[in-house]
Amino acid sequence: MFNKIMIPTDGSDPSTAAALEGIAFAADNKSEVIGVYVAPEYQYPVYVEIIPPTYPIEEEYDALMRKVGMEYLQPMKEAAEKAGVKFSSMILFSNTAGSAIADAATEQACDLIFMGSHGRSGLGQLLLGSVTTKVLNLCQIPVLVHHMKKKK
């Protein structure tokens, strides 16, 4: 039914758990998976006229975020290999993660986006919830929102 499924993650435990459920869903549907991590865009310090020597340059930031993203996507890659699911990954840079996910899913001709509703706790939970809401509002393709079962 679904040929290509996009599964975003923020690297948190609940987000990773939802992503692994997405891999299982993809295996059941014999679908290909594209794992996605959206990193914030590089921000130049605005409080000084020159960049402090301890502040990372844009290339260092880019390399670090790509490394972090690959670490976050690794559990998905391993699960996909075990399940026999074709897997590829993308690291995106955007301050509007919801828009980046929706745009990437369209550009990659995905049939479905599978994502958790809350990947973090506290304020992060609110922010990721808003990412899910943004994706739901922007996408013209189906979005399957995975809700984690509460531990008793």
TrEMBL record:
It comes from the Bacteria. It comes from Oxalobacter formigenes OXCC13. InterPro entries: Rossmann-like_a/b/a_fold (IPR014729), Universal_stress_UspA (IPR006015), UspA (IPR006016). Transmembrane segments: none annotated. Pfam families: Usp. This is Universal stress family protein. Residues 1-145 form the UspA domain. Belongs to the universal stress protein A family. Gene3D superfamilies: HUPs (3.40.50.620). Signal peptide: none annotated.
